[in-house]
């Protein structure tokens, strides 16, 4: 979920605003732990967008270069038993069009 500070879900960003990102990973067969990886990219050039801050419990930023482009991924720093990961995301300072969040979850 992408949330305003009052926990209202949003589908569009306002340039320069900060949002709460809440990623919930679920699984069947009673998983004992969860993990994830996420990145935010613009729709035109697949460039990294936004600034991550206030990383939640067991969340860290990992800087990687993919196809020659520097990107800031959020990843788990350790498995969590409830599957809920949070961080703040500050939108780009100008309207750059659509931003897509790509993520994957792991239930073990």
Q: What is the share of helical residues?
A: under 10%
Name the poorly predicted regions: none
Question: What is the element string, with H for helices and E for strands?
Answer: EEEEEEEE
Continuous helix count: 0
Description:
A hairpin with a 2-residue loop joins strand 5 and strand 6 (69-76). The protein starts with a strand and ends with a strand. The chain is mainly β. The protein has strands at 2-3, 18-24, 34-42, 51-53, 59-66, 69-76, 84-90, 99-107. It is globular.
Q: In brief, what are we looking at here?
A:
With 108 residues, this protein is mainly β. The chain contains no helices and eight strands. It has strands at residues 2-3, 18-24, 34-42, 51-53, 59-66, 69-76, 84-90, 99-107.
Topology readout:
Layout: E1 2-3, E2 18-24, E3 34-42, E4 51-53, E5 59-66, E6 69-76, E7 84-90, E8 99-107
List keywords for this structure.
mainly beta, globular, 108 residues, 49% strand
